[in-house]
Design a protein that fits this description.
By secondary structure, the chain is an alpha+beta fold. The protein has helices at about 25, 45-80, 105-115, 170-175, 210-215, and strands at about 80-85, 100-105, 125-130, 135-145, 150-155, 155-160, 190, 195-200, 215, 220-230, 235. β10 and β11 form a beta hairpin. The longest helix has about 35 residues, at about 45-80.
Length: about 240
Amino acid sequence: MDDESQGPKPVIVDATAPVEQPDTQQSADPNATTNSVETEAPAPESEEEQNKKEGIKGIFSTIAILVIAPLIALSLTLFVFQSYEVDGPSMETTLQDNDRLIVYKLPKTVARLTGRDYLPKRTDIIIFTRNEGMGSRQLVKRVIALPGERVVLKNGVMTVYNNKKPEGFQPDKVFPYGKVITTTAGDVDVVVPEDSVFVCGDNRPQSLDSRAFGPVPLKDITGKLSLRVYPFGNGQKF
């Protein structure tokens, strides 16, 4: 049989023999430009240079701490938490003179950023600003009545009227804090404005509150009492 009729013969490659590589230098375009690469490693830094760099890093780190830490602390104080000290007996026996408190301000901050008023709950103990003549001071009282409710105080008994309880209810009797209330004589009959709350001190005979200066505007509320942190053996969450 003719060899050509059997097709091309396979070429056997010796795997152990070295394979001849094409000469890239000869096949390359003679007009091509060859880029050279610097392979020499830079000289190592001296100990003095390393110490200088570490010193600069340390200075910047210290500056960052001195700048950022106060900013964080200021932000927390302005928008999240703030500490207060009780001055006076108006909230006894719930709070005592010289108690140290932590007030939670974040709900008020969020409400302000979203264009709303912060509305505390009934029985919340709040901190608010009371404008007095040419100055102002911070007061701590308990929320007794909410916007739109009617408050009547007669013969030492406080009654709150609203749509859910048109017959009225006595908050000092139906809420747990009532056991610490010291009542006082006097007459009050007021409807709380829609942008305000009615507040009282738990020690009624020694408290200047909404019975005297009227409801507190929501915009004047700083925040809600969260913790008593001092005295250390008398800490409490509210």
